[in-house]
Design goal:
The complex is a heterodimer of chains A (277) and B (593). With 277 residues, chain A is of the alpha/beta class. In chain A, helix 3 runs parallel beside helix 5 (168-180), helix 4 (141-151) packs across helix 5 and helix 5 (168-180) packs parallel to helix 6 (198-215). Chain A has helices spanning 66-73, 101-104, 124-134, 141-151, 168-180, 198-215, 226-232, 250-255, 260-268; strands at residues 17-27, 39-50, 55-59, 81-86, 89-90, 107-110, 186-190, 218-223, 235-240, 243-249. Chain A is 31% helix and 23% strand. The longest helix of chain A is centred in the C-terminal third of the chain and has 18 residues, at 198-215. Chain B is α/β, with parallel strands linked by helices and 593 residues long. Chain B has 2 domains: 6-26 and 77-224 and 233-281, MetI-like (MetI-like fold); 299-589, 3-Layer(aba) Sandwich (Rossmann fold). Chain B has 24 helices and 10 strands. In chain B, the strands form 2 sheets. A 6-stranded mixed beta sheet of chain B has the order 6-7-8-3-9-10, sandwiched between helices. Residues 283-320 and 584-593 of chain B have low confidence and may be disordered. The chains are: A alpha/beta (277), B alpha/beta (593). Chains A and B meet through helix 3, helix 5, helix 6, helix 7 and helix 8 of A and helix 7, helix 8, helix 11, helix 12 and helix 21 of B.
């Protein structure tokens, strides 16, 4: 429970994943011919630290910059300023996938919509083997695929099936299996359960929790759902309009929010009668 | 099912089989004609002119020059097939190359390619072919080139749109995050996913090419004399069409059947290469999804059977003299023979708010959408739905339209798609008023401003003039509510109206719905999967599972002391993932030192 404050300056070994002053703006379509095109600052100077085995929740509403932050953390896009460091080594998005193989073996992603994130034309076997193949991971890929599918609770009879044959929860398990395939140390999850039914949600969260503990995975969980963050994350970061308004231990932030926006967010969550009692 | 390959799926598809047979016949005829025809198709025999079919060894008879029609047909198949294949080859090379060029990251290249494509599209293929034929002389090549290029740009445009679509999908993003390079992504994800559309396009090119060949030859721009083609046969026999109509029928039929064959085969190939459609046609695809649809933790499996017997005397209505404004009795909805809503009874008193809860596939939305008659195509409803005493089931579409938006209105889940993007907000709010209340344009516009004010949009006079895309998600949902409440309906159906919204916006919208329905005494049927949301809005909740209504009671009863094991599990699952304002971070975090 007591999580030592991990600051980038302290200690000899650099933290697992770290971001310094990340900013990113996007040019919007012009409204008129005169003057420069309007610019939207999606992210303004975001700092974050993810220690080994930690779980960081990123909370914010639509337009807060969650997706932009995620893209930068995954090395899919370059920040205008600031840096992303993995074990002290800079992660720079590149057109050549080879440049980031070292990073992608360590950091994998699970996206929100399990319908959309699996290629409808590919069999489960090929979907889960994709990172192994792309990242040139050594060893028996077929065996590894069976192994990670077992880890997410799927039998090997699913190998030759297509995504549409599965329910939402099962699809999300397949997506998690794909992310686990290259034995990463960090799992980045973008709203991993918000597209699922309530009952399935609990199962997928249980699975993520179990995997994180068993495999010593560090988690970055992007979510608008405070319940999910409360359950899985030891630290939380609240984003609003591209800036971090509050950051700290989950228990502290959710129990004693200091920023009015965090308070507003907490108050807005519909609560089941009987939760408080 | 997993073993279903695309060709097996193709053979199972009746249309596909027919297409395969037709195209196969064409290919076989062309092949056979190289080595054998009953007579030499080019040889004229003036002693055997106008022989009727099945006489003197002429299967289909002879023409004015004594040429055997069957032999001509066989030989003509070569020309048709050659033009079709050549044109398709040219079209696919041109099309895919242009499409890839148009999606290049270099802006000016992609933009000019796109422009070029638009210009070439404006030029008809037949005209190009005639010009080419006039310059280079008519031949198989001019027809194929003209059709190939003209169709190629069409293919390019479609392929480009498809490439853009696939590039924007999450699975391409996931592949990139998994370390897949551009070419691998194109090969493994983009091409397979645009293939079905391309197959249909290319089968269209084949049929257009064979048709164009026939047309060109008929117009006299075809291959010169010794060459045999179906269009040429038509051209030759045109002067005698009244005396010998049958002779025009053979080549005409051959052209028509080939075109039909290409089209049928193309459509069937599209379906057969799509694992989803292929699975559905094999008839076992639904098994996985259905089996896991409503499972909650353990112990919930027994819930379905017991759930049918919900005691309706306990709904609190029977004792009162208040007549229900909406009374659903024994509602059953079937889609393609599958029962998706099973004998549902539900009633709403005037001004009452009822939450309809269930997970995806539970039938909650279909139950609600059956009321205004908005069920998807192919769905059949039976039972009884009475709105203020009037039976709605079985009403004709025109009568239902009068009820919709007037006495029953719906607020949909997705505010971004529920509004017409090409009409101003005010006009959309005014529409039901003009339709049902017979207001003039001016009156309706004034009322729209008032409604916009009531749903809490800032600066109403200005807001009615705005377009849907200028509003945020929450504002659009407010407009959706304004439209729904415009005619002060007796019943408002809200289908997951806040699921697509942020929590802070959700709270505002819930408050608004609460306030407005209370003011107008509107009965509210609120559909949601989120128990916490419904708890704050509804007086009563009904729980659905697998098409049945399994539990019903006041919100307090159901949430505090659910009777059905399924409801208990649902509540437990909701509590397990819900935000707990008093709680701290979970225990397992102690694992991290």
């Amino acid at each position: 429970m007591t999580h030592a404050e991990t600051t980038p300056e302290v200690g000899a070994t650099p933290p697992l994943l770290q971001a310094h002053g990340l900013s990113r703006s996007y040019r919007l379509p012009r409204r008129s011919l005169r003057g420069p095109a309007p610019v939207r600052d999606a992210l303004r100077g975001v700092d974050l630290v993810l220690p080994e085995g930690g779980a960081l929740g990123v909370v914010g509403e639509s337009g807060a910059g969650k997706s932009t932050l995620l893209r930068l953390l995954l090395g899919l896009d370059r920040p205008d300023s600031g840096r992303v460091l993995f074990r002290g080594r800079e992660v720079r998005a590149s057109r050549r996938p080879r440049d980031l193989v070292w990073f992608r073996r360590e950091v994998q992603v699970v996206l929100q919509d399990p319908m959309g994130s699996l290629d409808p034309r590919a069999r489960v076997r090929d979907i889960v083997a994709e990172p192994l193949e792309c990242l040139g991971v050594d060893g028996d890929h077929a065996a590894r695929v069976v192994e990670v599918l077992a880890a997410v609770g799927l039998e090997s009879d699913v190998l030759r099936r297509y995504p549409h044959e599965f329910s939402g929860g099962q699809r999300q398990r397949i997506a998690i299996a794909r992310a686990l395939a290259p034995s990463p140390t960090v799992l980045v999850a973008d709203e991993p359960v918000s597209a699922l039914d309530v009952s399935v949600r609990a199962q997928v969260l249980d699975l993520l929790e179990e995997l994180a503990v068993r495999l010593g995975l560090a988690l970055v969980l992007v979510s608008h759902d405070l319940g999910v963050v409360q359950r899985l994350c030891d630290r939380v970061l609240v984003l609003k309009d591209g800036s971090v308004v509050e950051q700290g231990l989950t228990g502290d932030v959710l129990a004693r929010p200091t920023h009015p926006y965090t308070r507003e967010l907490l108050d807005a969550v519909p609560v089941l009668p009987g939760m408080a009692g | 099912m997993t073993g279903t390959t695309w060709w097996r799926a193709l053979l199972r598809d009746r249309n596909g089989l027919l297409g395969l047979v037709l195209v196969g016949t064409l290919v076989v005829a062309a092949g056979v004609s190289w080595v054998w025809t009953p007579y030499d198709p080019a040889t004229t025999d003036l002693k055997a002119r106008w022989v009727l079919p099945l006489r003197d060894g002429h299967l289909l008879g002879t023409d004015m020059l004594g040429r055997d029609q069957f032999s001509l047909l066989l030989a003509g198949a070569r020309e048709t097939l050659a033009v079709a294949v050549l044109a398709t080859a040219i079209a696919s090379v041109v099309g895919v190359a242009l499409a890839l060029a148009a999606t290049l990251p270099t802006r000016w290249v992609s933009a000019s390619v796109a422009q070029l494509v638009d210009v070439v599209i404006a030029f008809p293929a037949l005209l190009t072919a005639m010009i080419l034929a006039a310059v280079f002389g008519g031949s198989l090549w001019t027809a194929a080139t003209a059709v190939g290029i003209a169709s190629g740009v069409h293919v390019a445009r479609v392929a480009r749109a498809e490439i853009d679509r696939v590039r924007g999908t999450d699975y391409v993003l996931a592949a990139t995050a998994a370390g897949s390079g551009t070419w691998r992504t194109v090969r493994r994800h983009v091409l397979p996913n645009i293939a079905s559309t391309l197959i249909v396009q290319l089968s269209l090119v084949m049929s257009v090419a064979s048709l164009t060949e026939a047309m060109l030859a008929y117009l006299g721009y075809g291959s010169p004399a010794p060459a045999v083609s179906w269009g040429r046969m038509l051209y030759d026999q045109q002067p005698y069409i009244e005396a010998r109509p049958l002779l025009v029928v053979w080549p005409g039929l051959a052209v028509a059947l080939s075109v039909l064959g290409f089209n049928l085969l193309g459509d069937a190939l599209r379906d057969a290469t799509d694992p989803k459609v292929r699975g559905a046609k094999a008839g076992s695809g639904a098994a996985v999804g259905a089996g896991s649809a409503g499972r909650v933790g353990g112990g919930a499996q027994a819930a379905g059977a017991a759930g049918a017997a919900v005691d309706h005397s306990s709904t609190g209505l029977a004792g009162d003299a208040v007549l229900p404004v909406l009374d659903i009795r024994g509602l059953t909805v079937r889609i393609n023979g599958r029962t998706v809503v099973d004998e549902v009874d539900l009633s709403l008193a005037p001004g009452e708010r009822v939450g309809l809860i269930g997970e995806s596939g539970s039938g909650k939305s279909l139950t609600a959408l059956a009321v205004p008659g908005l069920l998807p195509d192919g769905a059949e409803a039976s039972g009884s739905i009475r709105l203020a005493g009037r039976e709605l089931l079985g009403l004709r579409e025109r009568e239902l339209a009068r009820v919709r938006g007037d006495q029953v209105a719906v607020v949909f889940q997705e505010p971004s798609t529920a509004l017409d993007p090409l009409r101003r907000v005010g006009a959309q709010i005014a529409e039901p008023l003009r339709l049902h209340r017979g207001m003039t344009r001016r009156q309706a516009a004034a009322e729209a401003v008032e409604l916009v004010r009531r749903v809490g949009l800032p600066d109403p006079e200005h807001a009615v003039r705005s377009w849907p895309h200028q509003l945020s998600g929450g504002q659009r949902q407010r407009v959706g509510i304004a439209i729904a409440l415009a005619c002060r309906p007796a019943v408002l159906i809200a289908d997951e109206p806040t699921t697509a919204l942020d929590v802070t916006v959700q709270r505002e919208i819930l408050g608004l719905l609460d306030e407005l329905t209370r003011e107008e005494e509107t009965a509210l049927l609120f559909i949601t999967h989120d128990l916490a949301v419904v708890a704050g809005v509804a007086d009563r909740v009904a729980v659905m599972r697998g098409g049945r209504l399994i539990e019903e009671g006041t919100t307090e009863e159901v949430v505090r002391a659910p009777r059905e094991p399924y409801t208990k599990d649902l509540l437990a699952a909701a509590r397990a993932t819900a935000f707990d304002p008093t709680g701290n971070a979970p225990e397992h975090m102690a694992v991290n030192p």
